[in-house]
């Protein structure tokens, strides 16, 4: 691109360098996370969560680090509530009114899950990246991840076709993702007796 005024060209070049610097920093931090992961007791859980579409290394590490011990949640609904992905409720007497999500839980984990939920707007398929992450995992975890992908992609389309706003749909998908994540963690890290 060329601009008439030299100052505009300088600003553009500065912005390009800022993006390149941010990408370099992101790659460096991701490599450091990967190195530290090898010595973390939750590494098997992080690897298992990456079977899910929309949950790559940084998202998996973030969710595991923010949630901690998944076994303190007896069912997936408790985990959904902890993450603030359940609808708020205003009840009085016999009337029950539900509102937007509570956002009462862990904001960082909720954010990465909602970002990951956007990937379910595309049809279900196993990309090369996901295939490579699935290969070392047990068949039971791979089956849950595929079931999640088929269900969540179809649910995304149904909700959008019903006229729901995409932001609402994506939040609903993130909530359901948590149920599948809970199931995967139960296999990847059985509860201690």
Mean pLDDT: 92
Please report the distance between the alpha carbons of the first and last residues: 64 Å
How many helices? 8
What is the strand arrangement across the widest sheet? 1-2
Largest sheet: 2 strands, antiparallel
Rg, Å, rounded: 20 Å
- N-to-C SSE string, H for helix and E for strand: HHHHEEHHHH
Q: How many distinct domains?
A: 2
Low-confidence stretches: none
The coarse overall form would be globular
Structural class: mainly alpha
Name the beta content range. Answer: 5-15%
- Provide the helix percentage: 55-70%
Number of strands: 2
Brief digest:
The protein has 193 residues and is mainly alpha-helical. It contains 8 helices and 2 strands; from the N terminus they run ααααββαααα. It folds into 2 domains: 39 residues; 148 residues, no CATH class.
Explain the overall architecture.
The structure is a single chain. By secondary structure, the protein is mostly helical. The chain folds into two domains: 1-39; 41-188, no CATH class. It has helices at residues 6-37, 43-49, 57-67, 76-82, 107-117, 128-134, 139-161, 166-188; strands at 87-92, 95-101. The protein has a two-stranded antiparallel ribbon with strand order 1-2. A hairpin with a 2-residue loop joins strand 1 and strand 2. The model has no long low-confidence stretch (mean pLDDT 92).
């Amino acid at each position: 691109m060329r601009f008439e005024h030299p100052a505009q060209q300088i600003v553009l070049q500065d912005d390009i360098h800022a993006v390149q610097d941010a990408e370099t920093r992101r790659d460096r931090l991701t490599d450091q996370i990967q190195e530290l992961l090898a010595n973390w007791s939750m590494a098997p859980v992080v690897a298992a969560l990456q079977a899910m579409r929309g949950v790559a290394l940084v998202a998996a590490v973030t969710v595991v680090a923010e949630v901690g011990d998944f076994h303190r949640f007896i069912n997936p609904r408790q985990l959904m509530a902890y993450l603030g992905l359940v609808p708020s409720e205003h009840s009085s007497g016999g009337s029950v009114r539900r509102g937007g999500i509570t956002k009462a839980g862990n904001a960082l984990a909720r954010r990465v899950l909602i970002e990951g939920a956007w990937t379910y707007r595309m049809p279900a398929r196993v990309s090369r990246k996901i295939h490579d992450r699935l290969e070392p995992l047990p068949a039971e975890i791979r089956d849950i991840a595929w079931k999640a992908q088929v269900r969540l992609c179809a649910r995304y389309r149904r909700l959008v076709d019903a006229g729901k706003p995409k932001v609402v749909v994506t939040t609903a998908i993130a909530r359901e993702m948590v149920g599948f994540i809970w199931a995967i963690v139960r296999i990847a890290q059985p509860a201690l007796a």
